[in-house]
């Protein structure tokens, strides 16, 4: 290597030629500088210094003795490295070690009481749904961004969506976003991109339905069930479950809303459309590598007033102090010993049962069945004031 460098080759090219790191070439060239190659000492040298300065043993004993005194008799109750050095000076002892040296002494002599934080690996994506965690299917998350106002007083609300594995994004800025608008946007998106196995929402009444009455199953849930898409509702005030869509909400606001000045809602929609297209183009490899989506049924027609014919609704919830959860306006007993813990509640409308599965982030593969109860929701007919959505394919 040194001979090649002396012949005029660059150190970086020599490192690539000999398949070594650049600092390795630099180290040997520096050692052979100004010396003939046959006179250079090519023996490997230890990285440790020839001389080390270690605190004398009796001083280490003093450190431990002062720590013991402070721990047992100090009125302040502090016995860390700073307190030990302060007491060392107060006793008139000479040449006190530095605070960092005292910390090393305590660590070396096993005198530290603190426990190191155990950092566990995060669970896989969608760990709370076994089929999703094993990448057998896809999940679409949707959320509404509120509180945006265009200059002049025009209020804006945005429905954003993103798939969990593929990162397929979508965004619909509108003046008004109600349940009817959400239904049309979901049908439009799924007709163009295909159906996922799961669709995840928060517990907003726009998605879940009215919270005022028990057994209330909203129109978004009914739409999902009619397309054989399982709706999933994230637990309230829990981190992690909505991380994908919340992260995309932040990116959309940073790259579209805050980046440009929008004169009108049409201008904002144009900017958002261009951003979504660019995002999908950049993520095309990830989108194509995601689990396959189901084709949208060609002859599908949805009747809002039709009764529920089956399907599954999933609620991720945390139990209270008595091991109970609130689902669909009812309180169910899960397990008395499973208090303040996560459960997956699967409301099966075919078997008329609710299954409760235990969830642990540090053991994502272990999800035992805790309990099951019989449940048959009351059929609630939608009134005529609910506008029927257009389910026909859009002409292009």
What are the SSEs and their pairings?
Elements: H1 2-6, H2 11-18, H3 22-31, H4 57-73, H5 81-90, H6 99-108, H7 130-133, E1 139-150, E2 154-163, E3 169-174, H8 179-193, E4 198-201, H9 205-208, H10 219-226, E5 230-233, H11 243-257, H12 265-282, H13 284-288, E6 312-318, E7 324-327, E8 330-333, E9 342-348, E10 353-358, E11 369-374
Parallel strand pairs: 1-4, 4-5, 5-6
Antiparallel strand pairs: 1-2, 2-3, 6-9, 7-8, 9-10, 10-11
Your description of this structure?
This protein has 396 residues and is of the alpha/beta class. It folds into four domains: 2-39, no CATH class; 57-108; 130-288, Nucleotidyltransferase, domain 5 (2-Layer Sandwich), CATH 3.30.420.10; 312-374, no CATH class. Helix content is 33%, strand content 18%. It is built from 13 helices and eleven strands. The chain has helices spanning 2-6, 11-18, 22-31, 57-73, 81-90, 99-108, 130-133, 179-193, 205-208, 219-226, 243-257, 265-282, 284-288; strands at 139-150, 154-163, 169-174, 198-201, 230-233, 312-318, 324-327, 330-333, 342-348, 353-358, 369-374. The strands form two sheets. It has a nine-stranded mixed beta sheet with strand order 3-2-1-4-5-6-9-10-11, with helices on both faces. Strands 7-8 form a two-stranded antiparallel sheet. It is extended, with a radius of gyration of 32 Å. The model is unreliable at 382-388 (pLDDT under 50).
How many domains?
Answer: 4
| Portion in strands | 15-25%
Radius of gyration: 32 Å
Tertiary shape = extended
Would you tell me the structural class of the helices and strands? alpha/beta
What's the average pLDDT? 89
Tell me what the CATH architecture of the largest domain is. 2-Layer Sandwich
Question: What fraction, in percent, of the residue positions are helical?
Answer: 25-40%
CATH superfamily of the largest domain: Ribonuclease H-like superfamily/Ribonuclease H
Strands, count: 11
CATH class of the largest domain: Alpha Beta
Distance between the termini: 65 Å
């Amino acid at each position: 290597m040194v001979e090649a460098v002396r012949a005029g080759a660059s150190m970086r090219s020599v490192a690539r030629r000999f398949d070594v790191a650049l600092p390795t070439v630099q180290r040997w060239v520096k050692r052979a500088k100004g010396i003939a190659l046959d006179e250079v000492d090519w023996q490997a040298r230890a990285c440790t210094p020839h001389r080390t300065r270690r605190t004398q043993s009796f001083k280490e004993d003093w450190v431990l003795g002062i720590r013991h005194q402070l721990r047992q008799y100090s009125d302040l109750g502090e016995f860390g490295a700073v307190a030990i050095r302060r007491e060392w000076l107060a006793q008139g002892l000479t040449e006190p070690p530095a605070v960092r040296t005292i910390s090393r002494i305590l660590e070396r002599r096993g005198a530290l009481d603190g426990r190191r934080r155990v950092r566990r690996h995060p669970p896989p994506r969608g760990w709370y749904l076994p089929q999703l965690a094993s990448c057998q299917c896809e999940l679409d998350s949707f959320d509404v961004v509120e509180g945006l106002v265009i200059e002049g007083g025009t209020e804006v609300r945005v429905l954003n969506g993103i798939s969990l594995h593929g990162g397929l994004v979508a965004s619909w800025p509108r003046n008004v976003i109600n349940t009817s608008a959400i239904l049309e946007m979901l049908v439009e998106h799924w007709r163009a991109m295909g159906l996922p196995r799961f669709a995840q929402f928060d517990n907003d009444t726009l998605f879940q339905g009215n919270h005022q009455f028990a057994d209330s199953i909203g129109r978004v849930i009914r739409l999902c069930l009619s397309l054989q898409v399982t709706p999933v509702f994230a637990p309230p005030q829990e981190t992690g479950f909505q991380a994908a869509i919340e992260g995309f909400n932040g990116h959309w606001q940073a790259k579209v809303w805050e980046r440009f000045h929008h004169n009108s809602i049409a201008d904002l929609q144009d900017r958002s459309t261009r951003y979504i297209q660019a995002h999908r183009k950049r993520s095309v490899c990830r989108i194509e590598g995601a689990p396959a989506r189901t084709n949208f049924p060609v002859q599908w027609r949805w009747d809002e007033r039709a009764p529920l014919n089956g399907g599954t609704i999933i609620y991720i919830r945390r139990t209270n102090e008595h091991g109970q959860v609130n689902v669909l306006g009812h309180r169910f007993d899960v397990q008395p010993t499973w208090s303040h813990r996560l459960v997956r509640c699967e409301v099966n409308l075919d078997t008329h049962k609710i299954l409760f599965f235990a969830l642990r982030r540090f053991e994502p593969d272990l999800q035992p069945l805790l309990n099951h109860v019989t449940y048959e929701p009351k059929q609630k007919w939608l009134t005529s004031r609910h506008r029927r959505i257009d389910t026909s394919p859009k002409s292009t």
